[in-house]
Design goal:
Glycolipid transfer protein, GLTP, 66% helix, binds ligand LTTT4AJV, mainly alpha, lipid-binding, endosome, Glycolipid_transfer_prot_dom, globular
């Protein structure tokens, strides 16, 4: 009994990860950095379970997550509780390199922008997955979502490497299995809940960055 309880605890569930993203929004529609990075951490775990070929992608995500966690746990952590307070604090105190990389190459605002762009990829990919059929290819869905979003911010060499990684993505049945949600119908239901919520977090962040002219931070 105790043994099986331990095994249950260790099971990875994408539902839990997506629930973390649900915690991101405060009553005022501010986005909590703590839950945002926790959501990404879960996604990285999921990606790592797909194989070593994705390590170069997860390393970059882990690095960015860590930068944000360091700010959150640092002496000015209270300013990093939400994305809104982080942006305000960093802009008010000239802590962001706005035009070219300078003395603040790893500000919270520019670091989060990289994850924010990746969130758009995730939103597009999950929507494709939700509406996919049994014979749909995850590699194609992933590449299409990437080409429509994140790729526009990546140089040729990264686009090439990402394209190669997509080719070795497991097929839809394995993918659904690793998600550990249940049968295909359950996956579709879960994605039906998850996609609008991810879209909302994405849009609130996008509006904030757009209003502050931060969408092209170097
Ligand atoms: C139900 C299915 C769930 C899907 C779960 C997906 C899990 C995805 C987990 C993590 C995604 C990785 C996020 C990558 C963040 C990339 C940030 C970025 O753009 N970084 C570049 C720019 O940074 P700076 O140089 O300006 O600091 C950096 O150059 C990137 C390097 C790594 C390559 C990034 C390729 C991104 C491909 C995204 C698709 C991931 C495919 C995973 C498939 C499951």
């Amino acid at each position: 009994m105790a043994g099986s309880a331990v095994i249950e605890e260790q099971k990875f569930s994408l539902q839990e990860v997506l629930d973390t993203f649900k915690l991101c929004l405060s009553e005022n529609q501010d986005v909590y950095v703590e839950h945002y990075v926790a959501g990404w951490r879960g996604l990285v775990k999921f990606m790592n379970s797909l194989g070593n070929v994705f390590t170069f992608i997860s390393k970059d995500a882990v690095n960015k997550i860590q930068i944000l966690v360091n700010f959150l746990n640092g002496e000015n952590g209270s300013h990093y509780v939400t994305i809104q307070s982080m942006v305000k604090y960093e802009l008010d105190n000239q802590l962001v390199d706005l035009d070219k990389r300078g003395s603040h190459p790893e500000s919270g605002s520019r670091t989060l922008l990289r994850l924010h762009r990746a969130l758009r990829w995730l939103e597009l990919f999950l929507e494709r997955l939700r509406t996919s059929t049994e014979d749909s290819k995850t590699s194609v869905m992933c590449a299409d979502a990437y080409n429509e979003s994140l790729s526009q911010h990546h140089p040729w060499v990264i686009r090439k490497a990402a394209g190669m990684a997509f080719c070795v993505l497991p097929g839809r049945p394995t993918f659904f299995e690793v998600m550990n949600v249940g049968g295909a119908e359950k996956v579709v239901d879960m994605l039906g809940d998850a996609v609008p919520m991810i879209s909302k977090v994405y849009q609130i962040t996008e509006d904030l960055y757009s209003q502050n002219n931060l969408l092209e931070l170097p």
